[in-house]
Amino acid sequence: MQKKLVILGAGESGIGAALLGKQQGYDVFVSDGGVIKDIYRQELAVNHIPFEEGHHSWDIILNTDEIVKSPGIPEKNELMKKVREMQVPVISEIELAYRFSKDKKIIAITGSNGKSTTTALTFHIFETAGLNVAMVGNIGLSYARQVATAPVDYYVVEISSFQLDDIKEFKPNVAILLNITPDHLDRYDYKMENYVASKFRIAMNQGPEDYFVYCKDDPEIIKHLEKQTIYSTTIPFTIMEPLKQGGFMANEQVNIQVNDEPVIVSMYDLALKGKHNLYNSMAAGIAGRTMDIRKEKIRESLTSFKSLEHRMEYVASVRGIDFINDSKATNVNSLWFALESMETPVVLIMGGVDKGNDYSAIRELVKEKVKAIVCLGVDNAPIREALSNDTPLMIDTRNMKDAVQAAFKHAAKGDVVLLSPACASFDLFKNYEDRGRQFKEAVREL
């Protein structure tokens, strides 16, 4: 008899899971409590996959063999409580995709910040080396869609903690853990240790033939490593000390020492600037070496990579003022990394939907580097309360055009105008991409 598969949530990961499930012979049903985007609704119709939207049919959902849950659905949801109570097996789309690609090579990347950049850079290294590779997960196409429609030999997968919460057997050949800082704690009972444990699930099924690549300078990672046994081959990276095996800095050069062929690149030649990108470059370079990609190809990739849209993306220089779009910075830590990499005075555009942000972490950097803050949001009070004593000037704006013009007015030649909001975008924009595009448009109109 056909195995019944219910997919909760019809975003990119849900649709990918539906296509893969159907292709593999499951009896698939898609249920979304909200409105399904037209493009996804058409895809379901064309592929003859039954679906519902605007409600959930509990009788169908609770009588299935397995559920693929969208990472956006919290466990506190009434339906999920019932699903758990009835002990219906739940997996993530990542798990389903893995089930049908486990004979391929998988490089999985997680962390609170830098995931997308490191995923894109790792993909760039593998592509430059001529390998048959795809970049999937939280960036681009869903992993399941890629497996269903255009399978490859190497998958570079960006994974969030929510996706890791529902894996069972998922076992990447290389697991990269970049860093862990407080984020999404509302989904983890406001307990940091729950969030950390969730991130570490990336390595839970690995064996000695696999690699666990981690940042040795991250206190949360180090603390957790003392408690958890890792069964794979561990490879650290650090900017604090030389290592026999792993990634490290020496004489202002990035050194990647893996599998007897060291890769050495001057930090000044790296395509990605800033301290946080030293870590991202090391992690990606280590992934390349674990797969025996030649050092020349890794060096070439690390120096030729173009950064991603909305992630420290250079937009233009207007009258000697550089404009940088970092709209993807939706938490305080991302803003910290952005400010930390700045070497000239900054006019900062920030604000949006505040997820209970603690701005104290950036106060010193704001004092040191920020000459004005342009607040962009419906409610700018939290930013004003936290940072008004740390910068000479604060301006309130309610749309992107005004924000960019105010920033331009208060910036001087040689300064940087940085959009790095540290907040979600939903008060004034569709999403962070929309916010970033409006920023670029406003800059071009100056």
Describe the overall structure.
- The chain has 446 residues and is of the alpha/beta class.
- It has three domains: 4-91, NAD(P)-binding Rossmann-like Domain (Rossmann fold); 95-304, Mur-like, catalytic domain (UDP-N-acetylmuramoyl-L-alanine:D-glutamate ligase); 313-444, Alpha-Beta Complex (Protein-Tyrosine Phosphatase, Chain A), CATH 3.90.190.20.
- The chain contains 17 helices and 20 strands.
- It has a six-stranded parallel beta sheet, with helices on both faces.
- Strand 15 (313-318) and strand 16 form a beta hairpin.
- The mean pLDDT is 92.
- Belongs to the MurCDEF family.
- Keywords: ATP-binding, Cell cycle, Cell division, Cell shape, Cell wall biogenesis/degradation, Cytoplasm, Ligase, Nucleotide-binding, Peptidoglycan synthesis.
- This is UDP-N-acetylmuramoylalanine--D-glutamate ligase.
CATH evolutionary superfamily of the largest domain: Mur-like, catalytic domain
Number of domains: 3
Q: What is the overall number of helices?
A: 17
Give the structural class.
alpha/beta
DSSP strand count: 20
Strand order, biggest sheet? 7-8-6-9-10-11
Question: What is the radius of gyration?
Answer: 22 Å
CATH architecture of the largest domain: 3-Layer(aba) Sandwich
Tags for this model:
446 residues, alpha/beta, Rossmann fold, UDP-N-acetylmuramoyl-L-alanine:D-glutamate ligase, Protein-Tyrosine Phosphatase, Chain A, 3 domains, 6-stranded mixed β-sheet, 20 strands, 35% helix, 21% strand, globular, Mur_ligase_cen, UDP-N-acetylmuramoylalanine-D-glutamate ligase activity, ligase, ATP binding, nucleotide-binding
